């Protein structure tokens, strides 16, 4: 099991990125959350089996249809989130 945090930059707000990320994370059986940040980026935490988390990161690099991902930063997280996956209010 691994837990990571990603910050995604580009055209990622106003294009359904959070709902798309929630759907994909749930489909992969991952725990975590996703939210918009005030600087126009999207932040997410994903936790689960390493191969599924890696799959999700690959999906996040592409994003939903109308998104344009320019940069994806990946950071290891020491503490896994609660079970389930949710969309958090923006920060």
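^ Assign residues to that structure.
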């Amino acid at each position: 099991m691994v837990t990571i945090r990603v910050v995604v930059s580009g055209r990622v707000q106003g294009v359904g990125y959070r709902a798309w990320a929630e759907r994909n994370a749930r489909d992969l059986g991952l725990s975590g959350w996703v939210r918009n940040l005030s600087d126009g980026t999207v932040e997410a935490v994903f936790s689960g089996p390493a191969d599924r988390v890696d799959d999700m990161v690959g999906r996040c690099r592409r994003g939903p249809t109308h998104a344009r991902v320019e940069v994806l930063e990946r950071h290891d997280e020491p503490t896994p989130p609660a079970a389930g996956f949710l969309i958090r209010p923006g920060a």
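The beta strands are 2-11, 31-36, 42-48, 68-76, 85-87.
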